[in-house]
Design a protein that fits this description.
9-stranded mixed sheet; 22% strand
């Protein structure tokens, strides 16, 4: 999840990159982390500070400068700032770990300053803004990476390969349920703010789920219907129906209660199912046959390993170039589905709300 406290949005200044980044020292890139929330503390900083050369050039930026200083002391970082203004020209790469609505403007600031960017998911609140970032990165010859961590799961990669072989045959139905009570130690309350155009669990958790669907199945997943519990603020529960060549794709997401946290892909040749949080295993049951375990690469044994894989790739991009593990352009299809869902969403049927329209507060007998 994306965390962090809000950073001040500043007027963009177009800066043409001129030669190698100023902050580059030897083989260690200068990295700026925008936002010192929970994801920076638990995911990025442990990986970034493993190499003393990277740690010595690291800059932490947060308007809550005391929080940034405390985090810097804990991880041995010497550079802290309250704002990113005037700082990015000396940086090789920028990690954007802020509330969702700041991903686009801050990533754009970094790209315009000639920096490579690793942005927390979602890359932007709206797909058009994500496309703008993709185009800016291409124009400036900079990498634009996104932390859609589940793409790194070994079993997720194996499922993509497995589907690509045609082993399932024609897809008949897909069901995904994921949800638990919200317990993330957020540093700000942006998840629950109703200002602007509030978006809740579908943008946050759905950015993972829909990205995997698009990555596994390609661009032919289409929107059918969306219902949620929003009464004007960010939704906490949503039901989404999509379709793949006529086959129903049902997705249920919640931040209020625990769901089954499982996925099931039914094809004409068998069924593939597993737990959404299991990065190693799934179950394959061929039609008329016995179930067997489908496994990904056994190289990842702990979740924090994904941070090291992602950060190592980003550091390499900043010094040597190459392709991000999750390129920004590849998350655009899932963001378009999310846009379509929000544009057409309806509230769940809530017959008890008729009480609010009764003068006595009591609904008369039928």
């Amino acid at each position: 999840m994306t965390q962090g406290v809000e950073l001040v949005q500043t007027k963009k200044t177009h800066v043409q990159p001129a030669g190698p980044p100023v902050g580059k020292t030897g083989d260690a890139p200068a990295i700026c982390v925008l936002g010192c929330g929970a994801i920076t503390e638990s995911f990025y900083l442990p990986a970034l500070t493993e190499d003393p050369k990277v740690r010595d050039l690291l800059l932490l930026v947060d308007p809550d400068v005391e929080r940034a200083r405390a985090m810097a002391r804990r991880f041995g970082v010497s550079q802290v700032a309250e704002s990113h203004q005037g700082k990015l020209a000396s940086m090789d790469g920028v990690i954007v770990a802020t509330p969702h609505h700041l991903h686009h403007p801050l990533s754009m600031d970094a790209l315009e300053a000639g920096c490579h960017v690793l942005c927390e998911k979602p890359l932007a609140v709206r797909a058009d803004d994500a496309v703008e970032l993709v185009e800016e990165a291409a124009t400036r010859g900079r990498a634009l990476a996104v932390n859609n961590t589940r793409r790194l799961y070994p079993i997720v990669q194996e499922i993509r390969r497995f589907i690509g072989t045609g082993a399932l045959g024609r897809i008949r139905r897909i069901e995904i349920e994921e949800g638990d009570p919200f317990e993330w130690p957020a540093a700000s309350g942006f998840y629950f703010q109703a200002e602007g155009e509030p978006r809740g669990v579908l943008l946050d958790l759905g950015a993972h789920v829909l990205d995997l669907l698009s990555w596994w199945l390609g661009p032919d997943v289409t929107f059918i219907d969306c219902r949620d519990d929003s009464g004007g603020g960010p939704e906490a529960v949503t039901f989404l129906r999509l379709a793949l060549d006529g086959a129903p794709v049902d997705i249920r997401l919640s931040r209020l209660s625990s769901l089954s946290n499982r996925y099931r892909i039914e094809g004409e040749k068998g069924v593939l199912d597993g737990e959404t949080g299991d990065w190693q295993r799934a179950r394959w049951t061929p039609s008329g046959g016995r179930s067997r375990t489908l496994r990904g690469s056994p190289t990842v044994v702990a979740f924090d390993r994904f941070a090291r894989i992602l950060v190592t790739n980003f550091l390499h991009l900043c010094t040597e170039g190459g392709e991000p593990l999750v390129p920004g352009r590849t998350v655009v299809p899932s963001l378009r589905l999310i846009d379509r869902a929000y544009a057409a969403r309806r509230r769940f049927d809530m017959p008890w709300l008729s009480l609010a329209t009764s003068p006595t507060g009591v609904v008369a007998d039928a």
